[in-house]
Design a protein that fits this description.
With about 200 residues, the protein is of the alpha+beta class. The protein is built from 4 helices and 10 strands.
């Protein structure tokens, strides 16, 4: 079983996170940011990952440090669980409708961190969540996971739907990318024979 356990403690947050790539989609998320909890629960379910997150953060300031640091820890967990990336599909993509929103995500577990982010989120907040933190989360995740992630919004007016569609789509894209390809069993899927 490819899994990881991460602990991160700073002056701003204290996070413990566990991830199992061969899971059932069980999310047990308590970050102190309700909207982030909801998004990560959906991400785990659609990716079929088992994900546990506990975060105590300085949310009396705002949710920024919590959202960014959870992204860091999730990225670290994927990098640790995937190890040398042997035998994986490497690539994954999903075009996902969420009511009027239509979101495309595509990932390459390349070892190279790159985020191409194209969401037009009309509202500044969903509940108490600052929607600009969506991009902060994905930047932190991509940097630490060492992957290329493209996010494209093809349609959508409802901010909740746009963000929710993105997390669901990413879960499905990563589910494809991390899956073991029997044709590449034991091999690193690159002519360089290394993914960095």
């Amino acid at each position: 079983m490819r899994s990881a356990e991460i602990t991160r403690k700073t002056a701003e947050t204290h996070i413990t996170l566990s991830l199992c790539l061969e899971g059932t989609g069980r999310g047990d998320i308590q970050t102190g940011c309700g909207f982030l909890d909801h998004m990560l629960t959906l991400f785990a379910r659609h990716g079929r990952f088992d994900l546990m997150v506990r975060c105590q953060g300085d949310t009396y300031v705002d949710d920024h440090h919590t959202v960014e640091d959870v992204g860091i820890c999730l990225g670290d967990a994927f990098a640790q669980a995937l190890g040398e990336l042997r035998g994986i599909n490497r690539y994954g993509s999903a075009l996902l409708p969420m009511d009027e929103a239509l979101i495309l995500t595509a990932v390459d577990l390349s070892g190279r961190a790159l985020l191409c982010y194209d969401l037009n989120i009309p509202a500044q907040k969903v509940g108490t969540f600052d929607t600009e933190l969506t991009q902060e989360f994905f930047m932190a995740f991509v940097r630490r996971a060492g992957l290329t992630l493209h996010i494209r919004q093809l349609a959508g007016q409802n901010s909740h739907h746009i963000i929710e569609g993105t997390f669901k789509s990413l879960g499905r894209s990563l589910r494809q990318a991390v899956a073991i390809d029997p044709d590449f069993a034991g091999e690193i899927p690159s002519t360089k024979e290394v993914l960095t």
